[in-house]
Amino acid sequence: MKFFIDTANMDEIKEAYALGVVAGVTTNPSLVAKEKNVTFEDRLREITALVPGSVSAEVIALDAEGMLREGRELAKIAPNITIKVPMTPEGLKAVSVFSKEGIKTNVTLIFNANQALLAARAGASFVSPFLGRLDDIGHDGLELISKISDIFTIHSIETEIIAASIRHPQHVTEAALRGAHIATIPYKVLMQLFNHPLTDKGIEAFLADWNNRG
Ligand code: E4P
């Protein structure tokens, strides 16, 4: 499983990318809205100049024509832009056209396995099931990853599964075990993945022994 970073914040993206583990970036309109004094397009230019992997940029239009118009403009910014499209009938119409035009897509707001299968069959490059938001309403987000992974394996579907709406490190481990190709992770959770008290204790003990050597 690969790691993407789920943010539009440049400081977080730079810090995360420097760790050498980040293969891509996902944004959404809520994340972009938190960023002040920068246009969406300029932020995408900054991100794509740093990160060579997939950078998801979401369309705002709700009709296929509007999504196609917005998506084609966003795709001109850099070759590694992936157009993020909501899981609706209009969204999938746009995805099938983007797919024929060679523009990569990430179908977002996936909450059940049929939605993922539909998106894949429309030609989506990625599907994004939202784990945390399912857990929030008492459903099992991770179970959805297992189901989508099984279906895609049984039917030899190449669309990649991005485990999204990740809230804690356990989501990351479980998403990997259940076959997600990618987890897109907020900066805070990415940094939590490094933590183990025995690592800190071990470094402390090594340093103490080194400083007390004869
Ligand atoms: C990523 O593609 C999603 O937009 C994001 O993971 C949503 O996360 P949230 O449910 O914490 O807003």
Can you walk through the features of this model?
The model has no long low-confidence stretch (mean pLDDT 98). By secondary structure, this protein is α/β, with parallel strands linked by helices. It has an eight-stranded parallel beta barrel with strand order 1-2-3-4-5-6-7-8, surrounded by seven helices. The longest helix has 15 residues, at 197-211. It has eleven helices and eight strands. Helix 1 links the parallel strand 1 and strand 2. The chain has a single domain (2-211), classed as Aldolase class I (TIM Barrel). Helix 1 packs parallel to helix 3 and helix 4 crosses helix 5. Erythose-4-phosphate binds next to helix 7.
Low-confidence stretches: none
Q: How many strands, which pairing sense, and closed or not: the largest β-sheet?
A: 8 strands, parallel, barrel
Average the pLDDT over all residues and give the rounded result: 98
Q: Which sequence of strands runs across the widest sheet?
A: 1-2-3-4-5-6-7-8
Task: Please name the defining characteristics of this protein.
214 residues, alpha/beta, TIM Barrel, eight-stranded parallel β-barrel, 11 helices, 8 strands, 51% helix, Transaldolase_3B, transaldolase activity, schiff base, Transaldolase_AS
Helices and strands, with pairings:
Blueprint: E1 2-6, H1 10-18, E2 22-26, H2 29-33, H3 40-50, E3 55-58, H4 64-75, E4 81-86, H5 89-100, E5 105-110, H6 113-122, E6 126-129, H7 131-136, H8 141-154, E7 160-163, H9 169-177, E8 182-185, H10 187-192, H11 197-211
Parallel strand pairs: 1-2, 1-8, 2-3, 3-4, 4-5, 5-6, 6-7, 7-8
The structure holds erythose-4-phosphate.
Erythose-4-phosphate (E4P) binds next to helix 7.
